[in-house]
Fold:
Amino acid sequence: MKQQKEIEWTSLEIASKLYPATWSLKDPKVFRISCELDQEISRGLLQQALDQTVEDFPLYRCVLKRGLFWYYLEESNIQPTVYPESKAVCAPIYQGKKSDLLFRVSYYRKRIQLEVFHALADGTGALLFLQTLICHYLTIKSADFTGIVLDHEHSSLSSGKENSFDKYFIGRIREIKKPGKVKKAYQIRGTRLAEHRIQLIEGAMSTGEVLREAHKYHTTLTVFLASLFIYAIGSEMKARKRIHPVILAIPVNLRQYFQSVTARNFFSYINIGYRFEKHTDPLEAVIRDVERLFKEQLTAENLNDVSNKYLAIEQNMLSRIVLLPIKDLVLRLASRLAKRQSTSSLSNLGIITMPQEFNETIRSFSFCANANRPQMNVCSFQDVLTVSITSPYRETDIQKNFFRLLSQAGISIELSANL
Structure:
């Protein structure tokens, strides 16, 4: 008798457990990373490249299952298929009951797009998948690139599946601090688009030009962009709303602080904000406040404390024995409370690199996410910085304010939109 293969399963790490509990059609917890090449995409060759890539990333063949106490990833034999872009940007992937893969790969003209349900991976982990896919695609397409591979240490299969939260955090809090009064952040309102669609406005510009402008204020690119975004939001605030600070939730890639090479979720958050005293607060005042908060919060010690706090909650005996439907309800309530403490979010995927031989073939990368309020995503490749602002609202005043600030600084911007 033929022996049946044992099905493998993987538990979700702490950062992933929120997403299956809180997803909705309004907020499907999906993000997209795209790469634009210099030639039209071949569907057949891209399918071959995808077949090779999922062999390198077996976790991407998993489906999400509901257990009695927790969600978990279960190995499947589903073969992912490449398709021409036809769905709305960051349309739902995980929809509760149907067992399907947690990512999709599509293409449009010269652009390859990877969309991921956040429970599977964070931006850095998904980027590694896309980089591998592009590498396979280009080496299949041209004999000139034969033998070129990514120089990532973390492309090994064992490290790609690592739960780095369990590896680096013990779930103990060094000091129990009395919780202070929770600040309610300013909330952006607007007219929602039909069918839960989102509006994507994308600006491509010179990384060097933006860096030079940031250096005029003696600050970093991320601090500069975060300050501009806060300033653009503040410009639309009514006077009576200025009692609430504009706060950005900013994901932090923990791999930069702890030696991790996981392709799964491994990130934390810092909250950066500014309270506008009056409509004419100067941009430099915002930059100085934002820079101070970055320096205070962006430390290994602070990130270690935050991650241990969340892990301690997960490891609490009571939370372990509570049934999944009750946990889902608690997580949804906690998510709503957390949303009140931030206005928007800004995620910077950072500088994307590829083997030097591909640099003439690849034009740019971009990064965006589905949004239940306006939010910003940033990445750069060579001298192309791409800033994407997604929003569920028809109004575009914040986006116009932001890009106008860059334009007034003499930065040339190529704008595009999906609507």
The first strand starts at residue 9 and ends at 11. The first helix runs from residue 18 to 22. The two ends are 58 Å apart (CA to CA).
